[in-house]
Amino acid sequence: MRVAVVGCGNVSGNHFSALESMQNVEIAAVVDIKKERADEKAAQTGAKAYYDYEQMLLAEKPDCVHIATPHYLHTPMAIKALESGANVFLEKPCSVSPDEINALSQAQSKTGKQVGICFQNRYNKCVRRAKEIIDSGEYGKIEAARAFVTWSRGMEYYSDDWHGTADKECGGVLINQAIHTVDLMQYLCGRCTALEAHVSNDHLKGQIDVEDTASVRMELEGGIIAMLYATTAFSVNIEVFIEIFLENAVLRLEGEKLTLIKDDSSELLVDRADKEFVGKDYWGHGHKAIIKDFYDCLEMGRKFPIDAVEGGRAAAIVLASYASSAKNERVEVK
Asked: What is the DSSP letter of 152?
């Protein structure tokens, strides 16, 4: 299968590492508007370097396109790839507006091609085990959930030409970092139907256009309340903390550990994952697993579970959070 990787910045390393570990996959093309970055990845992989995305699509006609560009380009580039006949594996967020969410879903349906959204933490062992326990009903129904994302991002992180910008990043901690946790909350605990949120810039006022801190009160199906606090104004990067309160137990996810708490005792169900991973440790170790599963789905004709519709749900929650904060009122999630 011939593959193109579009966007050769930091996050692309996760994609290259996963693709290079797979058989029957050829990285045929790399694309970046910064010539030196495309050339470097081309030299490393043996692929052909391109500096124009549409030219690459016409010349190479890849079977699959990986998109790891600034956020505002995700949906337009994905739709062009789908219309050219390629499948798409897309970095989060899949879309930056409700109209884009709908357009991407429609393009997926119209072309019949597969779209995969990179929510790699769903493939962490602790998340999969927690999902099994919740779905089994062994400890009763979910009553509530809470999550904390406390990371650090200084001005060095925002020193490129798109991070921290309202028109290209299209948001801050919610749409970039915490969207993974937003996805896990609704994946594990149920669809979000309404929310009230507040976002602010607490430590880089006047230096970036977007929020570094957010709190979101999510109303999930079945009357479950889920609280999320997320910030990149902390001093260090701490693993994400999620607690899910069941009727007869509590599930606690700390990074890639899963603990079951019941009757004043605790049991470690999943310890730290295998140390072979790509990206930063606190990102989660699921990149290779999710990309392998996507290609298995393509090969076997099986529907990939985190498609444009499913991946769009987390984006919809984030976008609703921005709308709620701007209006200072509760909003429904559509």
From this structure: B
Helix (H, G, I), strand (E, B) or coil at 305: coil
Furthest CA-CA distance within the chain: 63
Is residue 93 a contact partner of residue 285, using CB atoms and an 8 Å limit?
A: no
Tokens for 252?
């606690």
Segment holding 315, helix H or strand E? helix 308-327
3-state secondary structure of 254: strand
Q: How far from the centroid of its chain's Cα atoms is residue 282's Cα?
A: 14
Domains of the chain: 2-119 (3.40.50.720), 121-280+306-332 (3.30.360.10)
- Write down the pTM of the prediction: 0.95
Burial of 282 (0-12, 13-18, 19+ CB in 10 A): middle
Which of 301, 294, 144 is CA-nearest to residue 225? Answer: 144
Contact 117, 210 (CB under 8 A): no
Instruction: Kindly report the backbone phi and psi dihedral angles of residue 309, in degrees, each rounded to the nearest multiple of 5, phi listed first.
Output: -70, -50
| Residue 10 DSSP one-character state | T
Q: Please, which residues have CB within 8 angstroms of residue 197's CB and are 6 or more apart in sequence?
A: 214, 215, 216, 217, 320, 321, 322, 324, 325
Tens of each residue's pLDDT in the chain, 334 residues: 999 999 999 999 999 999 999 999 999 999 999 999 999 999 999 999 999 999 999 999 999 999 999 999 999 999 999 999 999 999 999 999 999 999 999 999 999 999 999 999 999 999 999 999 999 999 999 999 999 999 999 999 999 999 999 999 999 999 999 999 999 999 999 999 999 999 999 999 999 999 999 999 999 999 999 999 999 999 999 999 999 999 999 999 999 999 999 998 999 999 975 554 444 444 456 899 999 999 999 999 999 999 999 999 999 999 999 999 999 999 999 8
